[in-house]
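Reply to dn_fold:

You asked what the input looked like. This is it:
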Amino acid sequence: MPSIANYAIFTNMCHISGTRQTMANGTEKAGFDENPPTQFEAGAQKTPFRMPAKRERVRLGEGGRFVIPAAMREEMGVKPGEDLILHVENGELRVRSWLRNLRRVQAELSALKKPGESVVDEFLKERREEQRRSDRRLDRLHALGTARKRAK
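and this is what came back:
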């Protein structure tokens, strides 16, 4: 006597091979007719296969170490060996990607920059002016020290 599992395998094989099969409503259909193949769309899968967990329980190990679960690292966009920013806010530890934080700050600051304005050129202009003031002061102090030395 065949088992139910063997019957399920047999009916699936009949379905795949294209043999006729009696449907629940009493009609007969040839193998692939009941579920016609559909075209696969690569972009149709919008959500990832595994949704990252929003909360995980981890154990604090020796030296205050803990492991960030893989799904959370993936959502944060970090990989082992990358730098992180840690800070405590209202008693909660906050962890951010150093690189993502840098990009966020750059985006915020670039919004403040006027079109056509070169932040680097402005910075260099300020540094050169500061260097000229320092050089003039040093020249003045040198001349004053040389004059006093000659007066003795």
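Confidence is low (pLDDT under 50) at residues 5-19.
Hope that clears it up.
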